[in-house]
Every structure is written in structure tokens, then in C-alpha cells.
Design brief:
The protein has 331 residues and is of the alpha/beta class. 40% of the residues lie in helices and 15% in strands. It binds phosphoric acid mono(formamide)ester. Phosphoric acid mono(formamide)ester binds next to helix 3.
Length: 331
Amino acid sequence: MKRFTDLAEVGREQVLELLALARRLEAQPEPRALAGKVLGLLFMNPSLRTLASFQAGMARLGGASFVITPGQGTWQLETREGVVMNGAAAEHIREGLPTLASYCDVMGIRAFAEGKDLATDLAETRFNAMAALVQKPLINLESAMNHPCQALADWKSIDELALPQRARLVLSWVPHPRALPLAVPAATVHMAAMRGMDVVVLRPEGFALPAPVMDAARSAAAASGGSVQETADRAAALAGAHIVYAKEWGSTTHYGDKAADQRLRGAHQDWCLRNVSFARSAADCHLMHCLPVRRNCAIADEVLDGPRSIVLRQAYNRMPAQMAVLHRLLS
Ligand code: CP
């Protein structure tokens, strides 16, 4: 494995090996496995979990890490091609990224969607332009349409629940004041399909996941024995659900149109997940969310603080899952 940028590209067999390695590293720590190795982390967008869990995981394997957040103590980085650099950015990624890569053994990059043009973001234009400049093992820390580290950790968290193989996972849209990217919903639906689950994407009209995302998930489900459906019917979707994975994302009908997106999402504030939402789900239905989450906007306190929630376990599992990725890429 040279890169960890997409769970689909890694493939089911290697994902299962990574999960086994994550469990092994939890049971039998290897504090010298990556001694002398350096992880470089470039965050074009903010983070709490990804940043801290990668640094902690690398340290627990005996390695070191550095973090670059352009504009916060380091030069701002220009990503556009062919521009006259007479603005705030002092350095272009064409020089900055190969320089950073030359200091480390593995590099992680976070570069969110631009959120202007859906086709551009679906093509991973921004992340791919940066990835092409790194001739070292590379990890996707969240791109426009993918968050493989979150998906791997979530797979581990679901394994720990010991549910039936074809458990029902409902990926439910929940409100947020702004249009958030599609990376986590796209990665989640694909991960659950690859895992062989019965996946239901529950969202209001105007928030359907893009056809290429759904088509890829359906292909993965066909290969693993699972299924993928999409609906706006909350009662039908939640009936018998073993997991409700809550996530906020922007309107795909009005992608890049902030005002139209705001009008549409404003009409769906009642999609905030409350205990009553679980009335039709299995008695032990679990709540998942990648975090960060806006309390009482996306999910009510009563659910986040209740026994259904495994959101903190998901956050913890980022670390052992990513330690397995680092171990496989470097040792
Ligand atoms: N879930 C996740 O990636 O969290 P951060 O944005 O805090 O890294």
C-alpha cells in the first residue's frame, strides 16, 4: 500500500487487514515500530480529531510529526494555477508541497471542497493537484468527496457493536447553519456498502447524494452482498434501523448557490435528531456522527448524551485505525 486516499481504492481485503492490525496494535502496542520516521501533516482546513489523533498515533508508534496550517505561523499557500501572486499567499504549493514532502516519510493532506462547482469537486480537482506534488506515501485527511480515515475508524466502531452482517445503517441528513461538504456522507455510504450493510440514505428533497457517489456505493454493495437505497421518508427509513449515522451536508440541487441552499435547509430544521426520531428503529439502535456536531441544531442533547450514542468511541477509533495505516505505509 503506497497511498491511503480512498477506501474503495484500498479494497475490502486490505481494509480488513488494516482493521485486524488496528486491533493488534491496541492489544500489543509497538512503541518503537516507526522510530526515526516522520509524518508531515498539511491542513488547508481546520481540524481537531484528525490533527490530534494522527500526532498521538505517530508518537505511540515511536515516530515524530510536524503540522503545517498555512497562514497560521507559516506562509499562506496559493493553490491556483497561473495566477499573479500579488495577494496574501507568499508561496505556491508547487514549491511548498515538495519542500514539506522532502522533510518527511509520509504526508497527510486535508483540502476540503471548494463548494462552487459540483463537477470540479466530484473530480477531486483540488486534492489531486496537491497529491500530484507529493512523491511520498500519502494519506487523505479529508478531501472534497472523501474521508477514508473517518470511514476506516467508523468500520471499526461498527465491528465493535457485533451487529448482524446485513445490519441496517441509515445515513440521515441533519440541519446545520451552513452547507457542509459531501466528504463524510460519500465516504460513509461507500464504507457501509463495502462492509455489506443495508444502507439507506435519508435526506430531504434537494439533498440527494450525487449520482456517481450512489452508483459507486451500489457497485460496492453488489460485490459485498449489501444494498443501497435513498429516500426522503423518515418513518420508513428509520423502521428497524440498527444505526442512525447523522450528518449535515449542503444541497446538491443548489450546489454553490448559498442563498438557495439557505432557503431550502431553513425549511428542514425539524430534521434535528431527537429521541422521538428513534421510535421506529430497533430498541438498541445506535447513533453515529463523525464530529464536530452542533448540539440541538443537528442532534439534540438527549440523544448525544444518551446510551445510543457512540460518537466518542468513533472519535477514539480514529487513532488506532490511523496507526494501522501509518504502520502499513511505513514499516
Ligand atoms: N471527524 C473529523 O475529521 O474531525 P476533525 O474535523 O476535527 O478532524
